Amino acid sequence: MIMKKIACLFPGIGYTCDKPLLYYSWKLLKGLDWEIVPVLYSGFPSGVKGSAEKMQQCARMALEQTEELLQETDWSEYTEILLIGKSIGTVVCAAYAKRHRLDCRQVLFTPVEAAFEFADCRSIAFHGTADPWADTKAIEKSCRRLGIPLYETEGANHSLETGNVDADIKEMRKVMKIVRGFVAKED
Predict the structure, then answer these.
(1) Global pTM?
(2) Cα–Cα distance between 162 and 33 in angstroms, integer?
(3) What is the CATH number of the domain that holds 101?
């Protein structure tokens, strides 16, 4: 039996697939023979930060576009499915997986709180403790409740960056090592 593995990348509003967390995930998975599908959506309103209403609107828009983009995907062809979301993308990938009852695992990069309405325990999450888009205590509580391993970067923002380039590169290496272990199902 041929092992077919697919990974879908769900970017954030301003955090595209060519930014570090998604770019290096893509490279890592490509090197492990995964098929990569970037899920690209657009047309978001401005002024989203701090507006629950606009955040919900963005999630709805992205999910609608995702449905259209992935409608031809035959999930039964794949032995492994991995969904990787960043920010609003964490909501979209988790909601899409739940809606389609996908047997998959998820990587949640800097999830927003709404992602935990849909995420399940076969996920891992990464959060910066200085993330202005998500409350650290709420993220920690949701991860505990769902049994999702949470990896926190002290003093990091919504991009998991601290402003110290050397520290950020070191942290990116650590994050990708954790992702590799998760993908390879290592403990």
Answers:
(1) 0.94
(2) 32
(3) 3.40.50.1820
